[in-house]
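Fold this sequence, please.
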Amino acid sequence: MSDAKTKSTQPVVQTTGHAWDGDIQEFNNPIPTWWIWSFYASVVFAIVYWVFYPAWPIGDSYTKGVMNNITFIDSNGEEKTMHWNTRALFLREMQQSDEALLTKDWTKKVSSASYQQILNSPEMLEYSRSAAIGLFGDNCAACHGHGATGKIGLFPNLADDDWLWGGSVEDIETTLKDGRLGYMPAFKGALNKQQIDDVANFVLSLSGHVVDAGAIKRGQAVFQGKEGGCYYCHNAQGSGLKSQGAANLTDAIWTVADVNAQSDIEKKKQAVKWVIDNGVSRRMPAWSGRLSDAQIKLLTVYIHELGGGQ
């Protein structure tokens, strides 16, 4: 009796009337009310969105929406207003957000300060570093690398304290604004093989390498004489000239001939001979006109600090 009573009090679940294998049925459970209202709300939201924002394609254009204009400053420095889109929104945020306004204030402060004031102010120096690292990555890293270590034979290392054109902030600013042309003529044909070999020996001796004494003496005569004329740029002692961007040959820093990577003296000499034979021609572009004065100033401080400055 108890079992029968229990079965009779159980609620009867409505089914769709479909049955499989005789006893498998499909329940007809209604969708929850909250889900129904959520669906209606999403439909209303979609309609409102279509009205106010770009939505539907029409031929080669699309609906622009209404009451959604965004005003920003374009690349020409002119105020421009257009309908809402992610690019316009991004440009406005880059110009009008709290962070953008703070950046603008700091850039103006650094621009109006002297280099000495910037270098003596931890706050301005820190801002210059943080702002210029992006500028360096966008404009300089393609050649000098993200670590500014350059590439021997092509681009100078900016992270050491060896400066071909000078490492003062004034020198660096001039380099950035006007660019540089690093040039050394090719001596293949102008000097015979013996003379080139002798000059290579003399050049290596300047930085402390042990080579043939006779070759050093002959190479010195060519280097310091009219026949080679190397002293015109590197001077008679081989210590280089900043005005010409001529390398100091008396230290162990090599910007073109990859001497330090060679395992023995013969390979080191071949590296130097290749440069004497073929010369050097490398140009850094002028950034004046491409970058603003404020951006060049930030980069000047950043590069100056990379190599310890002068």
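Residues 33-52 form the longest helix (20 residues). The mean pLDDT is 90.
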